[in-house]
Write a structure and sequence with these properties.
- By secondary structure, this protein is of the alpha+beta class.
- It is about 20% helix and about 40% strand.
- The protein has helices at about 5-15, 75-85, and strands at about 25, 40-45, 60-70, 95, 100-105, 110-115, 120-130.
- Strands 1, 2, 3, 4, 5, 6 and 7 form a seven-stranded mixed sheet that branches.
- A hairpin with a 2-residue loop joins strand 4 and strand 5 (about 100-105).
- The longest helix has 13 residues, at about 5-15.
- The chain is elongated.
Length: about 130
Amino acid sequence: MITENDIAEALGRQLQSLADIPPIYWDNQDVPETQARPYVVVQMVPGQSPARISGGKVQAGFMQVTHVSEVDRYATSANRVADNIAALFPYELTLPCGDGKLTITRDTVPGPGFRDGSDWRKIVQIDYVAI
């Protein structure tokens, strides 16, 4: 059976292959107060309980990648990084995952950017199924 760790490792390897990605903070890490923007925050969001899908053999969910930059600047840098992240995860991309495989289940496109206090955030959602 594929574990959440297997899924995070498969998607994380692909994300880290991007040459110009800012520092990445995973869902179990705090961003230090001294960290300058831009940076990227990753959150893994498992879907329906795997025990309810094919006896636990199929897992679905998404990885949310948020590019964080400064407000009051053009959003071009955030848009470029988000586009590059999305391009790493095209529809039907298949990655090795534990003792199985993980497949991207829809076109990955960046969502709209939004202001969050003194941050500008641009989210990319990567939907997957792991078998």
